[in-house]
Amino acid sequence: MADKVAFELVSPDRLLMSVQADAVAMPGMEGDFGVMPGHAPLISALRAGVIEVEGATDSPERIYIDGGFAEIAGDRLVVLAEEAVVVADMDRADLEQRIQDANAELAAAEEGEQRRLAEGKVAVLQEMLGVVR
Amino acid sequence: MANLKELKNRIASVSSTKKITKAMQMVAAAKLRRAQEAAEQSRPYANRMERMIASVASNLPSLDTAPPMVVGSGRDDVHLLVVVTAERGLCGAFNSNIVRAVRRRVIELQNNGKTVKLYCVGRKGQESLRRDLQDLIVEYVTLREFRHLSFANARPIAEQVSKMFADGEFDVCTVYYNAFKSVISQVVTDQQLIPVKLPDPEAVAAAAAETDEAADLGGAIYDYEPEENDLLGVLVPRNMAVQIYRALLESGAAEHAARMTSMDNATRNAGDMIDGLTLTYNRTRQAIITKELIEIVSGAEAL
Fold first, then answer.
1. Which of A9, A39, A42, A43 to mutate to test the interface with B (most CBs of B within 10 A)?
2. The pTM of the whole model exceeds 0.90
3. Could you say which residues from 5 to 44 on chain A have a Cβ atom under 8 Å away from some Cβ of chain B?
C-alpha cells in the first residue's frame, strides 16, 4: 500500500492541482472527514469550507472551496469543486465580498437543509476573515 | 467598354475586402486554438462527474424515489429548447443550421400538440428566431461581453433552467448546439437535459478502462454521503451546468472553426475576383492603346 494519497482538485475550467499528500481533511456535507491512504471507497458531497492538505511538497496547505464533490477510491482522492481559492491568496476585500454574497444567500434560503448550509458558509467565511489579514 | 478608372477602383475595393477576410480568418484560427484548449481542459471535470453519477445511479435502490430531474415530471406536454448560437455572423451556415433544426423541431412538436418554449443563448439565434417565433421565446441570454467563456457563464443558465423546471414551466428540456467535429465540420446536436439520461455504468466503465483510471476503481463498492437519492439530487443539477458549459464550449470552438473556413473561402473568392478584374483591366488598357495606334496610323495615312 502506498503511503501517500494522490489528491486531485478539478474545477470545470481545468485541473487545478494534482499532488501526493500524507493526509487531506475535507469539509463533508455530513461532517468533516480526513482521507489517508487506504481510505474506504466513498463518494461524498462537500459543503463550503476549507480543504487542508498535509505532507505535500509544492502545494498550498489550505484551499477554500465553495462546495463540491469528493470521490475516494484506493489511494486516489478526486475533488470536484466549481470554485476553489488558495486561502493564502485571499485578501480581506475578497473575503468580505464573499461574506456579503453568503449573507444574501442566507437571507434568500428557505428553512431546512438549504438554510443550514448557508449558515455554515457564513460561519466558515467569518472564521477565515479572522485568520486572514 | 468598361472604364479603366472604374476597374481600378473595383480592384482596390476587392483587395481591401480580401485583406479583411484574411485577417478574420487568422483571428478565428487563433481563437479556435484557445477554444479547443478550453474544451480540452474542461474534460476531466465532466468525465469524473459522469463517473460519479453513473456510480450513484447504479446503486440506487429504485428509480421511483429518484429526484424529479432524473425521472422527469411524468408528463411530456411542454418542451423547452435551449438554442445555443454565436454572437456574431460571418461564419457560414453556422447559425442558420441551428435555427433551421430548431424550426423543424418546433413544427414537429406543435403538430403533435405540444407546447414549445425557446431559451436563446447567443444573439444570432434570437435575431432570426424572433422573426416568426417571437411568442415562444421565454428567455434570451447574450454572452457578447465575455471574451472568454468560463463556467461562471454556464451556471446562471443552468440555475435558471432548474428553477423553471422546479416551477413546473416545462417537462422536457433539450439543448441545441453545434458540436465541434473537426475544423471543417460542425454537427448540429440535440441533447436532452431533463429528464436526465443517466449514463450507462458499463459504458462509463469501458471509457474509463481506456484511460488511466481503471485500475483502482475496479469493482469498488462505494459508501455514499449523504445517501444515494440525496446525493443524486445535488449531483444532477451540477451536472446540468456542466453539460451546458460543454455545449457552450463546443459551440464556441465550432463557431471559430466555421468562421475560419468561411473566411478562407471568402479570401479565395476575392483572390479569384481580383484575377478576373485584373485581366479585364489589362485587356481594356491594351485595347485603348491599340485604338490610339490605329488612330495615329490612319491619321498619318490620310495626309
1. A43
2. no
3. 10-15, 28-30, 40-44
Q: Is there a single domain that holds both residue A26 and residue A67?
A: yes
B173 tagged catalytic: no
Asked if B222's CB is within 8 angstroms of A41's CB, the reply is: yes
Only one residue has cell 451536472, namely B239
**Do the Cβ atoms of A43 and B55 come within 8 Å?**
yes
Cα B171 from Cα B225, distance rounded (Å): 29
Domain of residue A12 covers 5-87
Residue B259: enclosing H or E segment and its boundaries? helix B228-302
Is the same domain home to A51 and A110? no
Residues A110 and A81 in one domain: no
Contact B241, B151 (CB under 8 A): yes
Residue A15 to chain B, least CA–CA distance (Å) = 7
CB contact under 8 A, A44 and B224: yes
> Is residue A83 domain-shared with residue A116, that is, in the same domain?
no
Say which residues have a Cβ less than 8 Å from residue B199's Cβ, sequence separation at least 6: B50, B53, B54, B57
Look up the ipTM and state it.
0.80
Among A1, A13, A32, A105, most B C-beta atoms within 10 A, so best to mutate, is: A13
Domain count, chain A: 2
Give pLDDT tens digits for B150-163.
888 888 899 899 88
Beta strand segments in B91-204, E: 115-121, 137-141, 172-182, 185-194
Q: Name the catalytic one among B84, B91, B194, B242.
A: B91
